[in-house]
Amino acid sequence: MEADLVHLRESVYEANMMLKRSGLTVLTWGNVSGIDRDSGLIGIKPSGIPYEQMRPEDIVLVDLDCHVKHGLLRPSSDTPIHAALYRQFGAIGGIAHTHSRYATSFAQACLEIPCLGTTHADVFQGPVPVTRALRAAEVQADYEQATGTAIVERMSMLDPSTCPGILVRQHGPFTWGPSAGAAVANSIALEEIAAMAATALALKADTPLLSQHVAAKHFSRRHGSTAYYGQPGRQ
Ligand SMILES: [Zn+2]
């Protein structure tokens, strides 16, 4: 196997283990993928394998149509969702999916997460959106494909670089980023944002939204050409 694909497998394995260490996922729940854009191959967690037993060579490599190209195990059952997002968003390099407690609670309540403070604004420009309900025929025809379509539809007026995640209605969050590791970092950030929003709203139901001028300032400090947070040249 070419060095690039070995690297893809290792980076996706590491990102899956990072997700496990984060505590955002239990049992075999959750999955992380990454893509090598040159070959068009996605590396993704195998279906139903405990994280503790997984090895880098177990990461399944599939093409953008979900055909297995390398690997002996079945890929995650959510693979068509990941593939739909990679096809639509050419700039993303990794995707993570969890059922983390607070983000999933907002998804189950069918509530977007409002931007109530600067922690949220550092990561998301605007609220964290929620997808629409799926129709019975869509679920019966191809559930995972329909879920991917619903995410793409909801993101149609949004930029995946300023909105690095979404809540799938009554299911849970998907996040993305330039790499598989960055997607996991956004899952961790999203869970903190969701927990803080849920707590603030429990303390005060009419907690005000963060003002637009402070929200825009916080996002632009960290992202884009005007960023000045952190150290130049370091991730
Ligand atoms: Zn799920």
Write a compact overview of the structure shown:
The protein is of the alpha+beta class and 235 residues long. It has a single domain (3-222), classed as 3-Layer(aba) Sandwich (L-fuculose-1-phosphate Aldolase), CATH 3.40.225.
Keywords:
seven-stranded antiparallel beta sheet, 235 residues, binds zinc ion, alpha+beta
What hetero molecules are in the model?
zinc ion
Provide the helix percentage. Answer: 40-55%
Report how far apart the termini are.
29 Å
Order of helices and strands: HEEEEHEHHHEEHH
Instruction: Give the number of DSSP strands.
Output: 7
User: How much is the average pLDDT?
Assistant: 95
Number of spatially distinct domains: 1
Rg computed from alpha carbons, rounded to a whole number of angstroms? 17 Å
CATH superfamily grouping: Class II aldolase/adducin N-terminal domain
Q: Quote the CATH topology.
A: L-fuculose-1-phosphate Aldolase
The unreliable regions are none
Give the structural class: alpha+beta
Strand content: 5-15%
Shape designation: globular
- Label the CATH architecture: 3-Layer(aba) Sandwich
Task: Describe the fold and architecture.
With 235 residues, this protein is an alpha+beta fold. Helices cover 42% and strands 13% of the residues. The protein has a single domain (3-222), classed as Class II aldolase/adducin N-terminal domain (L-fuculose-1-phosphate Aldolase, 3-Layer(aba) Sandwich), CATH 3.40.225.10. The protein has helices at 3-22, 79-88, 101-108, 118-123, 136-154, 180-203, 212-222; strands spanning 31-36, 41-44, 60-62, 68-70, 94-97, 165-168, 172-177. A 7-stranded antiparallel beta sheet has the order 4-3-2-1-5-7-6, with helices on both faces. Helix 2 (79-88) packs parallel to helix 5 (136-154). Zinc ion (ZN) binds at residues 97, 99, 171-172. Residues 97, 99, 171-172 line the site of zinc ion (ZN).
